[in-house]
UniProtKB/TrEMBL annotation:
<feature type="binding site">
    <location>
        <position position="91"/>
    </location>
    <ligand>
        <name>Zn(2+)</name>
    </ligand>
</feature>
<comment type="pathway">
    <text>Cofactor biosynthesis; riboflavin biosynthesis; 5-amino-6-(D-ribitylamino)uracil from GTP: step 2/4.</text>
</comment>
<feature type="binding site">
    <location>
        <position position="207"/>
    </location>
    <ligand>
        <name>NADP(+)</name>
    </ligand>
</feature>
<dbReference type="GO" id="GO:0009231">
    <property type="term" value="P:riboflavin biosynthetic process"/>
</dbReference>
<dbReference type="GO" id="GO:0008835">
    <property type="term" value="F:diaminohydroxyphosphoribosylaminopyrimidine deaminase activity"/>
</dbReference>
<keyword id="KW-0686">Riboflavin biosynthesis</keyword>
<comment type="function">
    <text>Converts 2,5-diamino-6-(ribosylamino)-4(3h)-pyrimidinone 5'-phosphate into 5-amino-6-(ribosylamino)-2,4(1h,3h)-pyrimidinedione 5'-phosphate.</text>
</comment>
<feature type="binding site">
    <location>
        <position position="57"/>
    </location>
    <ligand>
        <name>Zn(2+)</name>
    </ligand>
</feature>
<keyword id="KW-0479">Metal-binding</keyword>
<dbReference type="InterPro" id="IPR024072">
    <property type="entry name" value="DHFR-like_dom_sf"/>
</dbReference>
<keyword id="KW-0521">NADP</keyword>
<comment type="similarity">
    <text>In the N-terminal section; belongs to the cytidine and deoxycytidylate deaminase family.</text>
</comment>
<protein>
    <recommendedName>
        <fullName>Riboflavin biosynthesis protein RibD</fullName>
        <ecNumber>3.5.4.26</ecNumber>
        <ecNumber>1.1.1.193</ecNumber>
    </recommendedName>
</protein>
<feature type="binding site">
    <location>
        <position position="214"/>
    </location>
    <ligand>
        <name>substrate</name>
    </ligand>
</feature>
<dbReference type="GO" id="GO:0008703">
    <property type="term" value="F:5-amino-6-(5-phosphoribosylamino)uracil reductase activity"/>
</dbReference>
<feature type="binding site">
    <location>
        <position position="82"/>
    </location>
    <ligand>
        <name>Zn(2+)</name>
    </ligand>
</feature>
<comment type="pathway">
    <text>Cofactor biosynthesis; riboflavin biosynthesis; 5-amino-6-(D-ribitylamino)uracil from GTP: step 3/4.</text>
</comment>
Amino acid sequence: MAEAQPNADDRRFMAAAIRLSRRHLGLTGTNPSVATLIVADGVIVGRGVTAIGGRPHAEPQALAEAGERARGTTAYVTLEPCAHHGRTPPCAEALVAAGVTRVVGAASDPDARVAGRGYAILRAAGIEVLEGVLAEEAGDQLRGYLLRSVKRRPEVTLKLAVSADGMIGLTDEGRVAITGETVRRQVHLMRAESDAILIGIKTALADDPELTCRLTGLEARSPVRIVLDRNGRLPASAKLAVTARMVPTMVAALPNAIQPSQRSELESRGVTFLATEAHEGRVALPELLEDLSARGIGTLMVEGGADAAGQFLAEDLVDRLVLFSSTKEIGSAGVRAPITPATVPPSFRLLRESRFGADIGQEWVRAY
Ligand code: AOF
Ligand code: ZN
């Protein structure tokens, strides 16, 4: 029997569920941020999003809000409901018990404990199940989780601001603002939605950045900060080190390259060392990413500079690319961008293009 097609309402409610799922992006640990809507005759009677920290899951929260009204409804789930007994019973069983009669799902769950079993439990209970509705849009939010399950590494987003003449900064000291305030706010939002953010040591030394999210109301959503610093040169006086007890800071260094006194000084400030393997004298990125994944980091944003960005690109480790282009020219004092909108390889697909004040932001994703 051919599977039923989604109707206009299905698409509308799933799009709303996907928007709701964004609320806890970056806050649910190794668990994906997913959302559930319970809809009775075109009216939302229950909504749930995976709680901060990852539990409870979305479904029991939506069902609790709906209460008795859940009977005979349609549930919209951005990820296949789980089938395993964790700290709570499986969400698929909770939907059955609540008397939901139809479930519309977006992405399937690759978790070995679920992997189709969630939908199977629903069908076995006589619930009508429609899978894969807006799966691409939902998968876009879940990419960090899906990639981590499939490749055992975080999803890597490379973000760069590029001047009109293809530069990303100045060769000598001194910061230069390439893009404007609207881009700055967008970048802070991207930070809030990432589990971790990475820069190279040169950028850490030149800019002494804080790399926190400083949007009002979202300050607590700052991601883990990682410095690619093979020789462990980050000074203990750097803002990243000084604030390490408030927002975790990690330094990825080659174990034998760092001075023990430097290491203990940084560690006393709360900085964590990630001892990494060397690859041609540099930090081996695949091993570093595996380590980060094992630490529960599902999404990593690389913010430059040119060396770090170039290494991720050269090793084919960029899954998502966000370029903010300005009309400003930097001239010969600039550092050439390792990638510009004109040189994005065809393996990347343009997903979005928006204006941010006078600047343009473009986002590409690569198939995985
Ligand atoms: C759902 N609804 O809201 C989420 C799900 O460690 P546990 O028991 O919390 O299980 C984690 C797994 O649960 C995770 O790998 C994924 O398969 C699923 N996430 N499932 O039904 C939710 N966040
Ligand atoms: Zn669940």
